[in-house]
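Budget justification aside, the reviewers requested a transparent look at the raw inputs and outputs of the sequence design task funded under Objective 1. We therefore reproduce one unedited record. The lines immediately below are the structure tokens for a 88-residue chain.
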């Protein structure tokens, strides 16, 4: 059964191009009724020019005290896909 996952406020930024995509009060179709996401932030490991700006540092400090650092994004995505396919 398809459900809707509500995204209240999100910003997707492509660091290579600087393009920002705001996502506010959008619905994403999902087959899992208890989807929930706090935050996902990706850094291109091949880019030497990335650093957090002060605004990002303030937001991160107010967000909480725990983070999951994913070093192998391909393996992470592979594991998610494998588990998701088991649920379908």
């Amino acid at each position: 059964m398809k459900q809707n996952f509500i995204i209240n406020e999100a910003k997707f930024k492509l660091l290579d191009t600087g393009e920002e995509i705001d996502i506010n009060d959008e619905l994403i179709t999902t087959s899992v009724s208890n989807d929930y996401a706090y935050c996902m932030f990706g850094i291109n490991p091949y880019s030497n020019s990335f650093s957090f700006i002060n605004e990002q540092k303030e937001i991160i400090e107010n967000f909480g005290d725990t983070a999951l650092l994913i070093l192998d994004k391909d393996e992470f995505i592979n594991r998610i896909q494998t588990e998701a396919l088991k649920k379908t």
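The chain has a mean pLDDT of 75. The longest strand covers residues 3-13. Computational costs for records of this kind are itemized in the attached budget.
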